[in-house]
């Protein structure tokens, strides 16, 4: 099991760090993290198996040290500030064993994301369905307002160049919270690490899997998530889902639970319009969940400081011209 990160050690390391090693670079999120860190001036090395030649070339072109498919424990040295593990790294991985033996600081991806965004307002979008649609609308609205933000996603959002983006001057981090296990080394789920200031749960639709064998276990992951919301935080939730509503009713007293449903619309000969106190905004509705997801995105943006009018303008233009 990967050791828990000590916050004081991490704070010192992140100020000093210039050399970072990532294990299991074939995982898309790990690869995107490597490029994000490299763009910030860090000295990056990476390893993995089944890495494609195009990705190998991209790393070489970016100046990321990659020695080919396989594991190279002898290349791990004491001057590496920390090691980041992909979700498929096992106890038997020779580089993981070497990192432990020489006392390197080891982090999972969610641990890193939390520590990297500790000083920022964290918005975490979760739920069995609808995350990508909600994220797309929020990101588009932020981009239209030229608001800087960090992001860490498991989905590929066409509006962004990759799944992870790190900024020095942003005060907000947008995170996709999924219910998959953090790594092969521990049973905690990624959703449990991020400690959001603002959390969104779109719905809970359990399907049996190796990670979640029972409905109760699946719901328990979301219960842990709501319990991890920071003090005085917000929980924005789909009010028509009885399981999510039960979770919202059980949150701590300091957390504000905010239900949402489908946004009001009207139909005219010219099309479909959002009905708002600021006037009507034309939209295209690509699926039956769009209006609910839109309301979730609007509330999230509002609590991050965006005016409703600015959100409506952005999402209207986006829905008419893009495929959400």
Brief description of this entry?
The protein is an alpha/beta fold and 324 residues long.
* Main β sheet profile: 7 strands, mixed
How many DSSP E strands? 17
Strand content: 15-25%
Q: For the CA atoms, what is the radius of gyration?
A: 21 Å
Structural class by SSE content:
alpha/beta
Helix fraction by DSSP (H/I, runs of at least 4): 25-40%
Number of helices, where a helix is a run of at least 4 consecutive DSSP H or I residues: 10
Strands of the biggest beta sheet: in what spatial order? 8-7-9-6-12-13-14
- Structural shape: globular
Distance from N terminus to C terminus (CA atoms, Å) equals 39 Å
> What ranges have pLDDT less than 50 throughout 5 or more consecutive residues?
none
| Whole-number mean pLDDT | 91
Could you give the order of the helices and strands? HEHEHEEHEHEHEEEEEEHEHEEEEHH
Can you offer a commentary on this structure?
The protein contains 10 helices and 17 strands. With 324 residues, the chain is an alpha/beta fold. It has a 7-stranded mixed β-sheet, sandwiched between helices. A 5-stranded parallel β-sheet has the order 3-2-1-4-5, with helices on both faces. The chain has a 3-stranded antiparallel β-sheet with strand order 15-16-17. The two termini are 39 Å apart. The mean pLDDT is 91.
